[in-house]
Amino acid sequence: MITRRMLIEAATAGAAGTAIGMGMGAATARAEDKPASAKYSGPFEMPRNMTLLSIANADGTETLGVKTGQSVIDVRRASQLLNLPAALTLDQLLQEGSASQLVKLEQAAQASPQAKAAIIPEASIAYGRLFINPGKIICIGLNYKRHAAEVHMAEPRQPILFNKYNNALAPANCTITLPPKEVSYKFDYETELLIVMGKRARNVSEADASNYIAGYCTSNDFSARDLQLETPSVQWMIGKTLDNFAPIGPYFVTSDLVGDPHKLKLQTFVNGEVRQDWSTDDFIFNCYQVVSFISKLWALEPGDIILTGTPQGVILGMPKDKQVWLKAGDQIESRIEKLGSLKFKLA
Length: 347
Prior knowledge:
disordered N terminus; alpha+beta; eleven-stranded mixed β-sheet; about 350 residues; Fumarylacetoacetate hydrolase, domain 2
């Protein structure tokens, strides 16, 4: 007769055998093989005095790194070695407000010989996506005075809003695979300053908006102009949100390190040739006006991102006989002062 005790003993033996088969023995995996994990319950804090990036790992994950000169603190590895919890992605860091944990981990990693293996040369890493699952990706159209003039459009009276989706998010040094020619062929660059929200903002004033911004990034609102403007009706969204049409990075820089976001030099290079070379002082609606405007329509949440528009120099703004659209093999570089150089290529 099979008794209840016999069933329990068999189940226990089976579980132990499974653990042994996985190389774990009867015990769990070693603590140093896993990041320290505990649900964050401390005060909500935005990151300050930090330059962060994302590391594309060999196991397919993308996890946080802290830039320190020419080196990077691998946050996941440091968490494993020091048994200290920390957010493993920028999305998580911003959404849970756990900046104090990351500061503690950074300080411990730099001071402890035990964490030496977690500090690696930046040149040795592959960049991952800075943002994987932001709540919102909001874009501002036609937001530079000289850009509006070059495309022969009136300056808008209020910010023009459209959106991208998470499928468009891509890392620095990525390759954008262009769609077939019958889908689209008029590809254009748009280097843009990216606002990263750090606190929930609802009905905030322009004067107070800077207190809700965690930091900034270099981004490119890559565009298919024929889909955007030449379909039976104007379709800004479909011309802007094909796969990988929003490369961002390689760095997130906290707002205190950036200072005034309205005096930043911005450039685009195509195959080494300068195409855009201007400044964010040409905004029609500056960063604080944009945040205030959107917050009166809906709440902006920590980790939401806002692409703020591009200056003059895009292919769309050139005379028709000089419009040579981007193609497979082209290499694009977007630079914004204090935020680093975002490079990607087309295939």
